[in-house]
Automatic annotation (TrEMBL):
Domain (Mannitol dehydrogenase N-terminal): residue spans on this chain: 32-278
Entries under InterPro entries matching the protein: 6-PGluconate_DH-like_C_sf, 6PGD_dom2, Mannitol_DH, Mannitol_DH/Oxidoreductase, Mannitol_DH_C, Mannitol_DH_CS, Mannitol_DH_N, NAD(P)-bd_dom_sf
Native organism: Micromonospora echinospora (Micromonospora purpurea)
Listed GO biological process terms: mannitol metabolic process
SUPFAM superfamilies: 6-phosphogluconate dehydrogenase C-terminal domain-like, NAD(P)-binding Rossmann-fold domains
Taxonomy of the source species: Bacteria, Bacillati, Actinomycetota, Actinomycetes, Micromonosporales
All residue ranges annotated as the Mannitol dehydrogenase C-terminal domain in the record: 291-474
Protein name: Mannitol-1-phosphate 5-dehydrogenase
Amino acid sequence: MTVGTGQLGLGALRRLPEASRPLVRPGTVDVGIVHLGLGAFHRAHQAVYTEAAMARSGGDWGIVGVAPRSTGLVTTLAAQDGLFSVTTTSAEGSHTQVVGALAGVRHAASDPAAVVALLADPRVRVVTLTVTEKAYQLDPVSGRLRPDPEVVADLTTDRPPCTVPGLLVRGLLARAAADAGPVALVSCDNLPANGRRLRGLVEQSLTYARVPDRAVAWVAACVTFPGTMVDRIVPASTEETLAEARRALGVADLAAVAAEPYTQWVIEDVFPGGRPDWGAAGAVLTDDAGSWERLKLRALNGVHSAAAYLGALAGRETIADALALPHLEPVLRRLVAEDVAASFTPPDRVSVVDYGDQVLARFANPAIRHRAIQVAMDGSQKLPQRVLHTIADLRAAGRDARWATLVVAAWMRFVRGRADDGTALPLDDPLAERIRAALAAHPDTPAGVTEALFGLTEVFPAELGGDEEVRAAVTGWLTDLDRHGVAATLAGAA
Ligand code: CS2
């Protein structure tokens, strides 16, 4: 076969450029991890760390990747023997590497029994998740389980589970019944205190499902929920991503992802059944990931959301394009230096301002075409930990939150669905209906919109909703954005 034809798979390995070949021999490692959520982020993050850990220190930590809903990727990865490539890309150039960490793939929606069986398999000692904020089905403010009909059906009937809470509860019950040994459930999503949130999700789900006391006791004794901070910018793959992988590999890779060079993983080290030697792969194992997580959620994700909403309103397609808007970068620097840095205590020896500078340099990477609309989606699930916690902590310390309230105002203008030039903007959010109904019930003025959206108590905690100064600041920014648009608002503020 000539180079340039064929598809990635075990049979194509010999034809790959040597520098692109996997670090472990695919098909030779046994399963040790189940991962829920096969998206681009997992493939360019945990899969890469796990492969490097196995290459350096051994261990059977092959990952079975589970796609909760979409079938396309499962079919593709199965056809490619679990192989996919990660292209690390920046202005300096790019490198494409095939990853051999996957020991299998499953589709939860069509074969939930296989997923439940895996969760009860004694070889599996770690379960990781990247399912996005909304799949946890928790109210962002209270952390309470949302009684979504699908979740309720999963937890209260015998039907095959299709939601994340349903799969986890059924899997843990099967594991307890099989006495298959302790396991760590590791959230790798950008939730606040993600380990505690996942524990809360499992405990509430067990209660909802009225499982027997001994199963509850088994979970309490045998399951841990390490908190993590995960970081790497990995946009959704595009035709260009696949074309670049093909150019580099000489064969097609329909599961290719592209990512920035930077990567970080901070993990709380509570793994009762053992874990890969992720430390050898560059991860930081710690007692408490909390301050790292706050740093990242506030100084990276909060700033990302700011760039996404302001950029989308100003008609910019990508985050890098948004950063090129006059005055945006200085405003984002002030958001970090004046608001985020004053809102919490960072990890030892970390300067929030330096971290913020590094983040802005990463966002400006011209090779990463991260669409503003992608970062903007699911705002109701993201805003609390990215921006509202910053505001709440500043207010508790008696300070104002000038720049963080601008981000809230930008989100509010964004969810009304029009860019500054009148172009329609999509509202892709699990609370879209609630947001639209709240807006429809109030006058379409800055004060009316603020009133409507602060009333979403699952997003805005009562202490913020009742804070007149915060409301006034948001209304003020919204007035500027409505009257003058993003460009003039930024020019006037910077
Ligand atoms: C982004 C994140 O889409 C988003 O909301 O803010 O996916 C971000 O790229 C990652 O958290 C970076 O680690």
